[in-house]
Structure formats: structure tokens, C-alpha cells
Design brief:
By secondary structure, the protein is an alpha+beta fold. It has three domains: 293 residues, no CATH class; 116 residues, no CATH class; 63 residues, Arc Repressor Mutant, subunit A (Orthogonal Bundle). The protein is built from 15 helices and 16 strands. Helix 2 packs antiparallel against helix 3 and helix 12 packs across helix 14. The longest helix has 20 residues. The N and C termini lie far apart (72 Å). Bound molecules: zinc ion. The site of zinc ion has 8 residues, from loops.
Amino acid sequence: MTNPTTYYEPIIGLEIHAELMTNSKMFCGCKVVDSAEAPPNTAVCPVCLGMPGMLPVINRQAVEYALRVALALNCTIQHHNIFARKNYFYPDLPKAYQISQYELPLGVNGWLEIELEDGSSKRIGVRRVHMEEDTGKLTHLEGGGSLVDYNRSGVPLLEIVSEPDIHSGEEARAYGLKIRQILRYLGVNSGDMEKGVLRVEPNISIRPVGSTAFGTRTELKNLNSFKALAEGTAYEIARQAEILNRGGQVVQETRGWHDARRITFSQRSKEEAEDYRYFPEPDLPPLAISDEWIATVRASLPELPDAKVARYQADYGLSAYDARVLTEERAVAAWFETAVAAAPTHAAKTVANWVINNLFALMNEKKQGIEQIQVTPAGLVELIGLVENRTINHNTAKEVLAEMFATGQSAPAIVQASGLAQVSDEAAITAVIANVLAANPDSVTAYLGGKEKLLGFFIGQVMRELHGKGDPAVVNRLLSQTLAARRQA
Ligand SMILES: [Zn+2]
């Protein structure tokens, strides 16, 4: 297939729904529970079941969480907020309407920076951030019939709508990942797409390059991973290009993503879509948000990923890539910063290298998160200290770290118990060098005849005799001296 982006410019906007991890639901006192684990219909009450005459009350914590997100996304906060009824009839919606912000969203005109695979970054506009409530959850049974679980009904939900500034599947994925990272930093959402607590829906259209009119758009649903978001978006761009290339017209519709077949398919055309008949929710007063409240929430925000990356580069001398890797998760960044604080000032980069090159490898291998590992930040710094004061060499230190990871023991305890301390006794090393040279007379002759790269072979033999514990600097120096003396002899 020809590359569709040569002829067409894809225009993509993303709608993201994020459940807020508050204690209770948006408009009642029911607990917010994990709908994958809690028994169905156990966290419900007359309000979230839509019983007649029940009155909703706004959850202050949900508004605060929504404010955190809107501020982190650089939005302007609206002081006067009104909730509306979004009317439609569906079995997962017991009231037959959803309470949502419509005309006046909480936050508008925000933005965030995304990082692309080639290392460049790009600013994407955030059109609106608004509060609403989630619906219940339907399970359709094989052979007919459906089950409904209202535990999710009324859970606070945030809708985040981007400007149509996204132009490829890769950009859509980068934007989605960045939103998820920020939500996790803010502690308002776990980012678990497979559990449905974070749902990403792109609107996709294409137009000939140079054209300013928008093409007909389709909306993609059922994306349960960021990989599916990137692939589904790319598939949809190619599908639309193929239709236009053969003179056809794109139909405005909602399409699903088939994860196994990796294709999109028609779910619902626009003609069948509902008219929601929005009107102001009569049971809720307008929500006033004061400058004071905004300032309090703003002051409580944690340092966000972009700020951390900039600081790590400036203060620790790290590359942008290393800084991104270390700040991917807030807990990892906190662990790293604790270690840096315990280390000598010059050692920040060394600590970063040990975390990225060695600790992450062990964590991946054992499938452990930073919260689960037995190695402490101070423990890693202690290990680095043993390398710096030449008690052990770098290769031994890697083995010691693996042992620390497996047993939780300290580096000095492991070094002592296993006799791993490095040999830097010059007399002992000189004796081993003499043995190695005596055992390899042909190589010595070849070396003295000009094959100087054999030095590496000799070092290897000496280190092997020392069981890998030789101080590399001392071995290197004594070996060079001994060979130089033979050359002069
Ligand atoms: Zn309830």
C-alpha cells in the first residue's frame, strides 16, 4: 500500500475518559470499588441506582481531583460550573440520563508536550476537561441475555478532549501515554486500560495535503491498549485513504477495533446516534470555584514529569533520554532521588547508570516494581561506594547487586561472606603475572614481536587466576611494567 500520508493529512483528536480514584462516587456516598474484583451490585444506593426522588450531592474530592488534572494540563479554570443532564436510554444508565458538564466545562484551553520516537517534542492543545459520572457495566452472555453491574454507576469520570492537533497513530499513542503518566503522577487514576478505568477514543479524518476543509470523521472505540490506539488509528487513516483513492466517500460513524484481527469495523452510523437533549440539571446548584481553592490545589500539585526531566538534566547532568526513563513513574523517580540524596554530590550520574543499566534489568527479569524490591536507595549507594574505594571491581559489583536483589542483604555483608573483596596486593598480583607469562611463552614472544593486542589476553588470564577479583587498574599497570621489562632485557 502507498503511504497515505504522502497525499493526505490525517487530522486526529482524542477523547479520553478517566475514572477518578476518589473514596466515594460523584453524587452519592457509595464507595468507589474495583469493578473487576468487587461482587456485582454491592456498592450501590438509591441515588446511583436512579430511584425516583433521590437527590445528588457533588463530591468535593472529585472536583479537587478534576482541578488537579485541569491545572496540570495548563487549562484555564472556569469559576462558574453547571452540570447538565445528557439524556439517553440504555440499560447501563438507570436514571436514563447522565449528569455531565456540557456548556461550561471545568477547564479549557490547556496543552501538553508529547515526545516522539525521533526525540522531538510537540505541543498538543487540550480543548476541555469536564466532570461527569460513569455508567454501569453490561456483560453480554453467550446464547443471549445480559447482566448489569451498577458498582460503576456514578463513579466520578473525567473527560479530556484534545484539539485536533494529532497527525498519526504514533502521536496519538504518545499523547495518550503522556495523559496517563500525568494522571498517575497526580494519583487520580491507575491508568489501567484493560480494566477500563482509562478509555481512549480517537476521532479520525483525512484531507488532501494543502486543503483546509475537514474530511468526514470516524470515531474509534474498544481500544484496550496504547498499542491498539496506535495501530487502530494507523489502520483507520489507511482505510479512509483507500476509500478516497477509489473515488468513494467516508461514512461518519463509530467503529470498533478488533484486537485479534487488527482491523476496525462499523459499529453505529451517525444517523442512528442519539440527540442527547442536554438541559441544566435541576437538582444541582451551580458549582462555584474560588481563586483561593484553585491556588490551594495548584500549590498541592507534585512536580510533574516535564519539570523533573528538565531538573535532572540541569542538576544531575543526565541526558534527556535517561531523565525520561527515570521519571516514567513517579515512584521510580522518588527512589532515584532518595539514592542521589544519599550519595556524594558527584555521583548522581553514576547512580542513574546503576539504576537504568542494572537495577531495571533485575526488576524486568523478576517482574518486580520499585515498591516490591529489597534493594534500598541507601543500599545501592553503599554498593557504589565499595566500587569507588576499590574494595570490589565493577563486574563483581554487578554480581553483588544481583545478590542484594535476591536476598535483601547489604553489599558489605555479601562481599565479606563471599570473599569478593578485590585483590590489589601487588606482590600477589606480580606472582600471578609471572605464572601466566611462564605458562604462555609463545604468546609472550608474539607480544614482544609486536602483537600488542595480546595484552588483553594476558589481562584475561591474570583475572581468571584471581577469580575475577583483581583490581583491574593494578593488574593492568603491573602487567605492562613486567612486559616492558622483558622487552628491554
Ligand atoms: Zn450510590
